[in-house]
Structure formats: structure tokens, C-alpha cells
Specification:
Helices cover 36% and strands 27% of the residues. It is of the alpha+beta class and 292 residues long. The strands form 2 sheets. It has a 6-stranded antiparallel beta barrel with strand order 1-2-5-4-3-12. The chain starts with a helix and ends in an 18-residue tail after the last strand.
């Protein structure tokens, strides 16, 4: 009881002293004798506050980052998906643009030669019984395609149809070793036969039947044409001679030509379902500077 009374007296005295000090400090302003003490207290407690804030702020930021991490990852994943979609869209757009150009070139060549064609896409590259180099296209008998029809693209001769079902057909390429196409030199009547030699379609062999006829590098070859235009229609660009072999004493001359059509990268092709009414001769050949 006595200790309790003493504590009350001490507390009351401290409060009274504090009130007196506050009153003196307030009335005297900047001239207060307590100003140094007040500044020291502000420095001490301010430093403690700054230190506490420096410790608390990083912790708070870390906690906030942890809380926001799932949402941030979701946003990152969404952006990645959107970028992938944009890239895919650009690729599809480029493919569509490339196919549109190939189709335009195909129709241009067909128009120049007077060929009625059924456009098709190459959907697979595969062998066939008796042939090594063949492709499958997505056009068949329901589109008017029949066996032994000429196949070309916007650059030149591709091959001929050897099998046709309702919605697809098999085409043996010009480059197949078992392929043989009647052909002639540009601007001349000399004829010969083009054979595939493999080599991934990079070259074909042209055997000129007249051993005395001139045959030089850079000469251009077009299809001679078959009876009733099957399997080959006339006037389709075949290739450009790259190399002439020396064949002394033989009855024929041999050269190797680079096909106009890129037989390793076929996409849009056309099947000639109706031959031209007259031989277009050399009218379908491209300008020489555009030869592939």
C-alpha cells in the first residue's frame, strides 16, 4: 500500500515536470533551452525509424512480390502464347502468299499455252511400284483427272499422272529414271528424249536423235507432245542445258539440263485435263533471265 502511494506521487511529479517543460519549450520557440535536447531526440528516433523502414521495406516488397508472382507468371504465359500465335499467323500468311503466287504463275503458264488445268496441292512425296520419284496430289477422278495426263507448275513440266482415285492421284516426276519425255530444242525442229537420272531432280538427260545437230550450253528444251496430248502436251518448258557430253561416233548426242520446275520443292501444281488446240511452240518459255 505504501509502495503504491509512493509510485503515484512519483508519476504525478514526472507528469507535472513534463507539462512545465512543454510549456517553457512552446513559449520560448527556437530560443528554448531544451532545443539541443529536442534535436538529439529527433536524431536518435529518426535514425531508428529510417533503419526500421530500410529493414521493413525490402521485406514488404518481397512479400508483395510473392503475393503477385502467380499473377505475373500468368501474364508472362499469356504473352508467350500470344507471341506464338502471332508467329504462327505470320507463317500461315507467308505460306498463303507463296501459294497464291504459285497459283498465279501456274494459271499464267496455262493461259500462255492454252492448257486447261485442274490446280492441286502436293500432299506427299512417295515412291510407286516401278518408279522411284513420285508425289501424291489432292485432286482425282472427281476433279476430272485421269491417268496419263500432263502435270506442270508455274515454272515448267513436272511429270505425268500414273494413278488416279476419286480424290487423289500419283504423279511420277520428270526426274524419275523410268520417265521418258519427247522434247525438242527451242527454235528448232530437232527432237530428242528427256530421261530422269535421279540426282534429286537437279538434272535430266536430253538425248538428241540427230548427232549432227548443234547442241550447246544454255539451249532451252520444251516438250514435243504426244498423240492427243497424252501423256504429254506440247510446248511445256522442260529445262536449260548445262552440260554437253562428247559422243564421237554415236548416232545421238547427249546433254544434261536443269529442269525449270524445282522438283525437290513442289507445292501447287496443275493437271492438264485438256490439251491446246494448237502447239504453242516456244510461246510458253520464260524470258531467259528468269530461267531457274
Amino acid at each position: 500500500m505504501r509502495d503504491s502511494n509512493r509510485a503515484r506521487l512519483i508519476l504525478g511529479a514526472l507528469l507535472a515536470a513534463a507539462l512545465v517543460l512543454l510549456t517553457i519549450d512552446h513559449r520560448t520557440g527556437d530560443n528554448s533551452p531544451l532545443h539541443p535536447l529536442r534535436a538529439a531526440g529527433a536524431y536518435v528516433f529518426g535514425t531508428v525509424e529510417q533503419l526500421g523502414g530500410g529493414v521493413v521495406r525490402p521485406i514488404g516488397g518481397f512479400v508483395q512480390a510473392l503475393v503477385a508472382a502467380p499473377g505475373a507468371q500468368e501474364r508472362i504465359d499469356a504473352l508467350k502464347a500470344e507471341n506464338a500465335k502471332l508467329r504462327a499467323g505470320m507463317l500461315v500468311g507467308k505460306l498463303d502468299s507463296d501459294r497464291a503466287k504459285e497459283l498465279k504463275d501456274l494459271l499464267g503458264l496455262a493461259g500462255a499455252g492454252g492448257y486447261k488445268v485442274v490446280p492441286a496441292n502436293v500432299v506427299a512425296r512417295r515412291g510407286a511400284p516401278g518408279f522411284e520419284d513420285a508425289v501424291q496430289i489432292d485432286a482425282g477422278t472427281s476433279d476430272g483427272v485421269r491417268t496419263e495426263m500432263t502435270v506442270l507448275n508455274g515454272e515448267g513440266l513436272v511429270g505425268r499422272v500414273i494413278r488416279a482415285s476419286a480424290h487423289s492421284s500419283t504423279v511420277v516426276l520428270l526426274s524419275d529414271p523410268a520417265s521418258a519425255v519427247g522434247a525438242r530444242l527451242e527454235g528448232a525442229k530437232e527432237i530428242g528424249v528427256v530421261h530422269g537420272v535421279g540426282e534429286h531432280g537437279r538434272l535430266v538427260q536430253f538425248r538428241l536423235l540427230d548427232s549432227t545437230a548443234p547442241l550447246t550450253r544454255g539451249g532451252r528444251i520444251v516438250s514435243f507432245g504426244s498423240q492427243h496430248g497424252r501423256p504429254y502436251v506440247p510446248g511445256v518448258p522442260v529445262g536449260v542445258i548445262e552440260r554437253v557430253e562428247s559422243t564421237p561416233g554415236e548416232l545421238t548426242r547427249i546433254a544434261y539440263a536443269r529442269p525449270y520446275a524445282d522438283l525437290t520443292a513442289l507445292d501447287v501444281v496443275g493437271v492438264v485435263v485438256e490439251a491446246p488446240k494448237r502447239d504453242p511452240r516456244d510461246a510458253v518459255l520464260p524470258p531467259k533471265e528468269k530461267a531457274r
